[in-house]
From TrEMBL:
<dbReference type="InterPro" id="IPR000305">
    <property type="entry name" value="GIY-YIG_endonuc"/>
</dbReference>
<feature type="domain" description="UvrC family homology region profile">
    <location>
        <begin position="259"/>
        <end position="501"/>
    </location>
</feature>
<feature type="domain" description="GIY-YIG">
    <location>
        <begin position="17"/>
        <end position="96"/>
    </location>
</feature>
<dbReference type="Pfam" id="PF01541">
    <property type="entry name" value="GIY-YIG"/>
</dbReference>
<dbReference type="GO" id="GO:0003677">
    <property type="term" value="F:DNA binding"/>
</dbReference>
<keyword id="KW-0267">Excision nuclease</keyword>
<dbReference type="InterPro" id="IPR035901">
    <property type="entry name" value="GIY-YIG_endonuc_sf"/>
</dbReference>
<keyword id="KW-0963">Cytoplasm</keyword>
<dbReference type="InterPro" id="IPR004791">
    <property type="entry name" value="UvrC"/>
</dbReference>
<dbReference type="InterPro" id="IPR003583">
    <property type="entry name" value="Hlx-hairpin-Hlx_DNA-bd_motif"/>
</dbReference>
<dbReference type="InterPro" id="IPR050066">
    <property type="entry name" value="UvrABC_protein_C"/>
</dbReference>
<protein>
    <recommendedName>
        <fullName>UvrABC system protein C</fullName>
    </recommendedName>
</protein>
<keyword id="KW-0742">SOS response</keyword>
<comment type="function">
    <text>The UvrABC repair system catalyzes the recognition and processing of DNA lesions. UvrC both incises the 5' and 3' sides of the lesion. The N-terminal half is responsible for the 3' incision and the C-terminal half is responsible for the 5' incision.</text>
</comment>
<comment type="similarity">
    <text>Belongs to the UvrC family.</text>
</comment>
<dbReference type="GO" id="GO:0009381">
    <property type="term" value="F:excinuclease ABC activity"/>
</dbReference>
<dbReference type="InterPro" id="IPR001162">
    <property type="entry name" value="UvrC_RNase_H_dom"/>
</dbReference>
Amino acid sequence: MPQAGFDVKEELKKLPNKPGVYIMRDENDTIMYVGKAINLHNRVRSYFRTNIGRGPQIDQMVKQIARFEYIVTDSELEALVLENNLIKENSPRYNTLLKDDKTYPYIKVTVSEDYPRILFSRLMKKDKSRYFGPFTSAAAVKDTIDLINKIYGLRNCNRTLPRDIGLERPCLNYHMKQCCGPCTGEVSKEEYRQRIDKALDFLNGNYGVIMKDLQEKMEAASEELDFETAAKYRDLLASVKVVAQKQKMTDSSMEDKDIVAIASDDKDAVVQVFFVRDGRLIGREHFYMTHVSENPKEEILLNFVKQFYAGTPFIPRELVLPEQIEDMEVIEKWLTQRKGSRVYITVPERGQKEKLMELATQNAELVLSKDKERIKREEGRTIGAVKEIEKLLGLKGLNRMEAYDISNISGFANVGSMVVYEKGKPKKSDYRKFRIKSVAGPDDYACMHEVLTRRLLHGIEERHDLEVRDIDAQYGSFTKFPDLILMDGGRGQVNICLQVLDELGITIPVCGMVKDDNHRTRGLYYNNVELPIDTRSEGFKLITRIQDEAHRFAIEYHRSLRSKSQVKSTLDDIPGIGPARRKALMKHFSSIEDIRNADVSELAEVPDIPETVARQIYDFFHNVKQIEEE
């Protein structure tokens, strides 16, 4: 419905015959869709015509348009850039969106420094350094940098050279013979520059020279019976061979290109990109596209190209696509401006590029197929399992389940746990732990009564507060009440929960998770009846996971309290030691055993511990030792 005061027909008449960006908004003034147009007048008016085959998704969007606005630009290229920015900023629900938060690693060589370094970088800047990449594996980049530094003895420190030469002792890498030590002044700029030049050759793919050099050094060390050095060169040679093998040659053009392929169905789309750098296939990556609905492949592909290459710092010389896309010349011009040199978009019909496109398409289809199988399996483990529990208990609309457990040792430090599962998955942000306040001694029923009462009362108070402030009471950690409460036990635990619910006037189904003599889940106790459950079913497996999770969460909390209590009781028995000094001691020594073994002078080094207190600490542990030995 159009907003009051917004006359669609009148506003359509005002549209200019110019390029620009149009923005569709709903009745809440939320941006639903952003698009660009060569001619705003023609493009925006087309949405409000009937029987033009726009598809169900666009028809649905048009019904929700309350108003539209537009921004005029000087060219279609400017409109393209503005459209990208607005989509990225607002993520409209009817735009096809790229799900991607990746930043790709580069190898950075600081050639402008007197003693250059080879570094790992997530950004490519205009800082006079040389960059290699992007690569798809951060681990592979780090391994490559480590290998190059070892082979050529390059520095990886942050010292400013030559200013800092001789000011500090050389680092461990120098003593391990993994750095030639320019900080010592033993290596001239010229000699170090030769090492860097060889490293640049290596990064450019010239592996033959270094492999030959390492082979000769290994053989020479072996002939001199220096087997330790020979083994070092052997390992380096093996590492170089691994790197060389990974750099698969794809063609002889030695150019940078991205091979972009797509696979889609009526709900999902996956784009696969092969990254070719200097003629070598250095890696691949797949990307999920959302809001695809019934959009044709070329439209999904167009949205991917605009969104991905608006964000990536590296633009290849050539973009290879499986088919023509709309506005290809404008996209080429835009990419050329972003790169600063000519960029080409091509659609291969034969040859090596076409074979790579086939391979990339197969990979995209495989990812899409596997992902659907994974989602299907995951839904079986989660939503499917919940439906099985619904059927077993005769419930409907089961979404949120809460499970509770109590942990203590002979009544010491009673604690309770609350774990939450929604749609069969743990919602850890809603987990809660309770330190029992009203129960002393091992009384699990009384502890459970307190935990449930506190949890539900807190929820009632939150709901009342939200109602008073006229805020939607659907949100909040305790505000949401469960559709089912699961108790770690049978009739006794269930009755405690039912008692609390009755006291508070709340109606929620309660089910007990009954265990056998071997402490394994055997069934569910519900409505005064123990229901057997198929131990091979997904529902049974979900119940077991929930029960184990509630137990784990309670145990971990109890263990942390025991640990804190032990530290506190030991140090707090010492005269002159309060919370601040206890914290200072633990920060300085890390453990009670270290404090026990320290002498008076070492204890006095701790901030806020005078020598008199240090003597008291020493005497306390010394006397304790004597008592223990006696």
